[in-house]
Automatic annotation (TrEMBL):
Example of a GO cellular component annotation carried by this entry: cytoplasm
Annotated catalysed reactions: CMP + ATP = CDP + ADP; dCMP + ATP = dCDP + ADP
Locations listed in the record: Cytoplasm
Protein name per Swiss-Prot or TrEMBL: Cytidylate kinase
Length: 211
């Protein structure tokens, strides 16, 4: 089974995808980390504007680098939103994501274009959203819990800028696939989102819920 989870920044995709993967015994790929990794490599080389260098980095990504905590920084996220608009970078990362999805026993992938481009035949597609204010609140709490200094207004501005870039780029823009189910999590906690997602996926795939 392949489950595609897409949606804007800090909507709760990763949290949900991890829990779904555990529940269904599937592998999980946070595809945002791939773009973050490419961005960080380019930032270190002071070459964030160089699409060809980005594609080269994407082709030679070391999977071990994906667990580097530096990828979680706001700078890496903002950089990812820049390099993800380069078609060469998206192309270089496409096959790797498809291979990951195709391997047994199946996978949950979360990102921006999983249901539309990477896995258009996924068994279930969820489009996870929340208001920009709620997403900024969640991201602020997350950064605070990591001991980082937080300016929630700046986070909200970054989220809005990222939404705009992600939704308006020419290649694989952020949007719900025609057959995706939209899950608005603005007023739902993570447990409620998980329960709603299970009900949707079990319904779509004809599974009987585990007792
Ligand atoms: N439904 C929810 N309600 C409140 N906080 C949530 C919810 N889902 C996730 N979070 C928290 O919000 C932050 C962003 O979630 P995350 O899963 O990383 O989002 P994304 O992968 O979409 O960027 C994390 O700190 C996470 O613990
Ligand atoms: N499948 C994907 C995943 C991420 N991305 C880009 O990578 C950036 C960072 O993604 P992320 O999922 O790690 O970001 P958050 O939602 O966690 O903030 C996004 O803003 C997108 O521009 C993408 O274009 N396609």
């Amino acid at each position: 089974m392949i489950v595609a989870i897409d949606g804007p920044a800090a909507s709760g995709k990763g949290t949900l995808a991890r829990r779904l993967a555990r529940h269904y015994g599937l592998r999980h790929l946070d595809t945002g980390l791939l773009y973050r990794a490419v961005a960080l490599k380019l930032i270190h080389r002071d070459m964030l504007e160089d699409a060809e260098a980005g594609a080269e980095e994407a082709r030679h990504l070391d999977p071990a680098f994906l667990s580097d905590s530096a990828l979680r920084s706001e700078a890496a996220g903002a950089g990812a939103s820049v390099v993800s608009s380069y078609p060469q970078v998206r192309q270089a990362l496409l096959e790797m994501q498809r291979r990951f999805a195709a391997e047994a026993p199946g996978a949950v992938l979360d990102g921006r274009d999983i249901g539309t481009v990477i896995c258009p035949d996924a068994d279930a597609k969820l489009f996870v959203i929340a208001s920009p204010e709620e997403r900024a609140r969640r991201r602020a709490l997350e950064l605070e819990s990591r001991g980082e200094e937080v300016d929630e207004a700046a986070i909200l501005a970054d989220i809005r800028a990222r939404d705009h870039r992600d939704m308006n780029r020419a290649t694989a823009p952020l949007k719900a696939a025609d057959d995706a189910v939209t899950l608005d999590t603005t007023t739902l906690d993570a447990d409620a989102v998980f329960a709603a997602a299970i009900a949707i996926i079990d319904g779509l795939t004809g599974r009987t819920p585990a007792s």
